Amino acid sequence: MNKPTGYDQAEAKSFSGGKPVPPGAYVLEILKAESKKATTGNDMLVLTLDIAKGEYARKFTEISDDRKHDCYLKHRRVTNTEGSLPYFKGDIKAIEESNPGYKFDFDESTLRGNFVGAMLAEEEYEKKDGTIGTSLKIAFLCSVATAESGKLQVPKKKEIDFSSNRKLQTDVPPPIDDSDLPF
Fold first, then answer.
1. How does strand 43-51 pair with strand 132-142?
2. Strand pairing category for 115-126 and 24-37
3. Cα separation of 40 and 43, whole Å?
4. pLDDT tens across 111-134, in order?
């Protein structure tokens, strides 16, 4: 292997991202808002967000820049079904209440730069190697005032449900019964 040009001058970095963001209520900034189609074909609003205030401000921007791919917080909300419409309206209300004078006019590009409160909660997922990891997800949006009130309770970690006979992938094959072989 050849030594890369600039190796000696380069600052060493790792992908650890430093101190992990703990679950809890945060004030987030909307970095991007897009209207998309869900896999079901329903209309969906996708918000890309980062923490706006406090010790962890811009943490997901920092991680995304270090890893050279999108590690931002995402909030997806289907907008056009009877069951999802009240939650979509609640999300919009939280954004409007958090930004005095702002009124959503159904142009998603106007959401960029606005603030909103959110609860970040832990959720388990299955890694490619079959082990269990934990990630931080947006549990719900709320007003900035609600997020800053100190009255919200952090939800319990959402664990993988194994009750449906679903098993984790493993690299270990099942044992072979060779008791009836002739040797």
1. unpaired
2. antiparallel
3. 9
4. 999 999 999 999 999 988 889 989
Cα distances from 5 to residues 8, 10, 15, 68, in angstroms, run 8, 9, 22, 20
Residue 158 CA to residue 79 CA, distance in Å, equals: 24
Here the tokens at position 27 are: 């004030």
pLDDT digits (tens, 9 = 90+) for 5-35: 877 887 765 444 467 899 999 999 999 999 9
Distances (CA, A) of 152 to 38, 123, 140, 156: 30, 18, 11, 12
pTM, rounded to two decimals: 0.77
* CA nearest to 28, candidates 88, 103, 112, 105: 112
